[in-house]
Each structure stands twice: as C-alpha cells, then as structure tokens.
C-alpha cells in the first residue's frame, strides 16, 4: 500500500540514550518479518549536519553544494536534499509515493502523530506533559514507575509484550 493510503505513522520520542534507535530497529525487524514495508525518518536533534562518508560520490556532490543528490546501487537509492530548514510534513510528503505500510519517525517530539515515549529517569517524566498523542510508554529500571500511567506502560525489558502491542496497533487500518 502507498503511504497516504491506510499507512500508519508512529513516532518514537525520548531523550538522548533512551533507546529510540534500538526500538526503531526492533520495530523494523518485526514489521518486515511480517511482510510490511517500513519507512523511517530520523530527526538529528544534536545539532549540526549528520555525519556522512565523505569518500562517497554522493557525499562529495552534497559537499560541493548540490541541493539534491542521489546514488543507486544494488537496488538501494540514497537521497539527500539540502535546504535551509525542513518541516516534518514536507519530509513525509516526499515519502507519500513510496509503497510503505508503516512510517516510523524518530524524534520530532512536538509533532502530532501517535507516540511511544521512552523514559529513562524521573527527569524524563516531563515529556509526558510536553507531547501529545501518547500511545504507550516504555520505561527503564532507572525510571521509578510508582503509580500507573493513563496509557499502557511496558518495561524496556518486556520486549515481546511491547512489540506485540505496537505491531497490533500498526496493523490497524488508518
């Protein structure tokens, strides 16, 4: 199915080193094993341009000032587009013509899509008030879950349970 037609969008949010990328990887593996096509968007929230391999031709084209670069090999297309600032909606629009079932977004805390919130410490709890559309929470042993939350919550060590919950949600048609 094409993105924009019954596709699911899920955001993974949390502070640095909370396990966002690991969770996205787990979801990609699970979804692809089930025959679903997955796209991802990652917000590079640490400032600066994400590192690239400067020896690759596409990176050299980008560094030379090209606004859009692409390289294809063995069925893989890597695309890079340069502009002053990107809104998430503009990036999602680029993905609309790809035949995807699920789009996973890592970061972009203030956007409005369904979210998985990762909590590592009590200081991370502020995220629960700062973000919208929380689907569930994954928490680390270092987060003191002292009272039930108003949405499903899973220990980061309950991988089978939270992956089952999230994949069930991802299979529901939009």
TrEMBL record:
<protein>
    <submittedName>
        <fullName>Molybdopterin-guanine dinucleotide biosynthesis protein MobB</fullName>
    </submittedName>
</protein>
<feature type="domain" description="Molybdopterin-guanine dinucleotide biosynthesis protein B (MobB)">
    <location>
        <begin position="9"/>
        <end position="137"/>
    </location>
</feature>
<dbReference type="Pfam" id="PF03205">
    <property type="entry name" value="MobB"/>
</dbReference>
<dbReference type="InterPro" id="IPR052539">
    <property type="entry name" value="MGD_biosynthesis_adapter"/>
</dbReference>
<feature type="region of interest" description="Disordered">
    <location>
        <begin position="43"/>
        <end position="62"/>
    </location>
</feature>
<dbReference type="InterPro" id="IPR027417">
    <property type="entry name" value="P-loop_NTPase"/>
</dbReference>
<dbReference type="InterPro" id="IPR004435">
    <property type="entry name" value="MobB_dom"/>
</dbReference>
């Amino acid at each position: 199915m094409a993105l924009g037609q019954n596709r699911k969008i899920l955001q993974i949010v949390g502070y640095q080193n909370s396990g966002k990328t690991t969770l996205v990887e787990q979801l990609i593996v699970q979804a692809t094993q089930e025959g679903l096509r997955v796209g991802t968007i990652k917000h590079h929230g640490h400032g600066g341009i994400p590192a690239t391999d400067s020896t690759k031709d596409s990176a050299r084209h980008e560094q030379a000032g090209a606004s859009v670069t692409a390289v294809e090999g063995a069925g893989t297309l890597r695309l890079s587009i340069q502009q002053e600032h990107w809104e998430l909606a503009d990036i999602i629009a680029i993905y609309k013509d790809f035949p995807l079932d699920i789009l996973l977004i890592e970061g972009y805390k203030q956007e409005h899509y369904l979210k998985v919130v990762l909590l590592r410490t009590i200081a991370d709890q502020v995220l629960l008030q700062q973000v919208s559309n929380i689907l569930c929470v994954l928490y680390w042993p270092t987060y003191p879950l002292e009272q039930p939350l108003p949405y499903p919550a899973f220990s980061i060590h309950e991988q089978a349970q939270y992956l089952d919950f999230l994949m069930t949600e991802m299979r529901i048609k939009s």
